[in-house]
Write a structure and sequence with these properties.
The protein contains eleven helices and eight strands. The chain starts with a helix and ends in a 6-residue tail after the last strand. It folds into two domains: about 210 residues, 3-Layer(aba) Sandwich (Rossmann fold); about 45 residues, no CATH class. The chain is of the alpha/beta class.
């Protein structure tokens, strides 16, 4: 396991910096981010992505099914003297939040969802008219598209492309390196629910949402914090080639908006 996944304080701070420097500017190209706006993050984890929104004066709510992550988020926000509400629950059971948000954030969550089409179809219920969804995820075929960086083994956590192995071999490799059952279960679940650029964009067409903007990254903006690498957009020569672009897109950014409201 990489150090940032063991030290949640480091991880929280890294996410808050990436959100401030890259997520918010990207969102602002399509939608204002202003004080008083309601911002929801689904699968918020420790809440790092929401911190800069809170400091801008937005009303932030983070929802995650992991009680431990919500507990950490509350503690980190308290330490940062920031305001935010955090709820340990399945977002789609919170009917009182429907039609309430200007911005919804789904960062590195979509690849974990089993019924992706149902998830996407439910998102619009939580948007205000003219609200937007910021969606980001790693393309499945990219070097760490399987989230193997969460492995406790230093070798596996730094080994790219192993998630593309046949399931039986992948499971055996995880067991050989003595990963615990919870880790193996999560990694195999991600493998089962893998998402490519093509499958994501195809799913969107079957929902009430539309793609307003897209940016594919050759070097993930988060790598600036993690590895000191300057973010770089995937070149147009590759970004328009189906399937091949999945191997080079370390992160995919999308702005989604309801079709009937989309004027682009």
């Amino acid at each position: 396991m990489q150090e940032r996944h063991k030290n949640r304080t480091i991880y929280f701070k890294e996410l808050s910096i990436t959100s401030k420097n890259y997520f918010i500017p990207y969102i602002q190209h399509s939608h204002p981010v202003e004080a008083g706006m309601n911002v929801l993050e689904i699968g918020c984890g420790d809440g790092g992505n929401l911190l800069p929104f809170s400091k801008m004066g937005c009303n932030t709510i983070g929802v995650d099914i992991a009680t431990s992550r919500i507990k950490d988020a509350k503690a980190f926000f308290k330490t940062a003297h920031a305001k935010g509400i955090f709820i340990a629950q399945d977002i789609f059971l919170l009917k009182e939040l429907e039609q309430d948000f200007d911005i919804i954030i789904c960062h590195d969550v979509f690849e974990h969802i089993r019924n992706k089409r149902l998830f996407l179809s439910h998102l619009s219920k939580y948007l205000k008219p003219q609200g937007i969804v910021f969606m980001s995820f790693p393309a499945w075929q990219m070097p760490f598209g399987g989230h193997q960086q969460i492995c406790k083994s230093k070798i596996l956590s730094h080994l790219p492309f192993i998630h593309l192995l046949p399931t039986a071999i992948y499971r055996l490799l995880l067991k050989i390196f003595r990963e615990d059952n919870d880790c193996i279960k999560e990694l195999l679940s991600i493998k089962q629910t893998r998402i490519s650029i093509e499958s994501f964009e195809s799913l969107i067409k079957k929902t009430s949402l539309n793609i307003q903007d897209r940016k594919l990254w050759l070097i993930n903006p988060h790598y600036k914090i993690k590895f000191g690498l300057s973010p770089r957009k995937l070149s147009k020569n590759i970004s328009h080639i189906p399937f091949l672009r999945n191997f080079f897109s370390t992160s995919c950014f999308y702005i989604l908006k309801e079709k009937e409201l989309d004027k682009i």
